[in-house]
Amino acid sequence: MKLRIVVRALGLAGVALTLAGLPAVAESTLDLVKKRGQLNCGVNGELPGFSSRASSGWAGLDVDMCKAVAAAVLGDAGKVNFVPLTAQQRFTELQAGKVDMLARNSTITLQRDVGTEIDFAAVNFYDGQSFAVSKKIGVTAPSGLGSSKICVVKGTTHEANMVNWFRARRYTIQPVPFDNAEAMYAAFFASRCAGMTQDATALAAVLATRNKQADYMVLPQLISREPLGPYVRRGDDAWVDIVRWSFQAMLLAEELNLTKDRVAGERQSTDADVRQLLGTIPGNGKALGLEEDWAYNIIRQVGSYGESFDRNLGAGSPLKFERGANALWSKGGLMYPLPMR
Question: Quick check: pTM over 0.85?
Fold first, then answer.
């Protein structure tokens, strides 16, 4: 009997010691960002139109995604620390807590979403994979690159997509892998590969910004679907909600014709959808754990999705991309804003 009591006492003592050694419950990402007063956002940093740095500062569609979250959470779109990450680094750095979110032209796939400790929050750009080639080689379709050397970045969906596409058509290619896009571009323009592969818009951006369009071209055929979007760590539902709805606020702003310049005058609109989005009708802010003017701050400081697309990729940019699949659903595209109520 005494032995049983002693064993039970020792067991309870062990449990107490174990509990004492457990770490405290981790702070939510929202609390960490508020305490820090700055959002750490992982980006590409070398992809014009999506995220790149010039003398005037950071710019790009993904950069605006980061700024929108900072505006929503901190009330200031300028409170962002942009962290350039390679394709190999991006997900491990996110999981390790080095960044609060990732907005790095990253394709959303089942195995990334289900098989890892990360979640995607939205699709902020619909793209597809293609190839860039020199015009002088006379290739007009991907099949013309069979048996050729093709430059590709390691650790991307492009690598597997390329191999699978050619294998299915019984072509043997020679992948030439690189650690980052800049190294791939340098090798391609030095004629080390007959072609290079990446998202079609990324290839077009590289040719446009480097004045290579006279001698090189992007093949029109796409070999994959590449929906791109921001990622966050799994297990913080409140944070993924904030990132998701920050994007939706920009999308709905475009549908409601709310822009940076005119949104201030719309806070007293008689349109219930406008009033709810801008926080005049309260509730959305409280649901997200934010101030009621969170979406107003996004639109006033960053703009609508249409404004962001135009200045970074569209008519207001050097790239002059058409909206295509990234147009609003009402204009033939895939962008469909979710109800903000």
Answer: yes
Nearest-5° Cα angle at 303, 299 to 307: 150
HSE value, Cβ hemisphere, 13 Å, CA-based, for 69: 34
233 in helix, strand or coil?
Answer: strand
Structure tokens at 88: 């190999």
Is the distance from CB of 318 to CB of 255 less than 8 angstroms?
Answer: no
Q: Which structure tokens are listed for 131?
A: 């190839």
Torsion angle (degrees, nearest 10) of CA 129, 131, 132, 138: -150
User: What structural domains does the chain harbor?
Assistant: 29-126+228-314 (3.40.190.10), 129-224 (3.40.190.10)
Over residues 66-123, the pLDDT tens digits come to 999 999 999 999 999 999 999 999 999 999 999 999 999 999 999 999 978 999 999 9
Residue type, 26: A
CB 190 within 8 A of CB 141: no
Q: Which residues of 218-255 are buried (b: 16+ CB within 10 A; e: fewer)?
A: bbeeebbebbbbbbbbeebeebbbbbbbbbbbbbbbbb
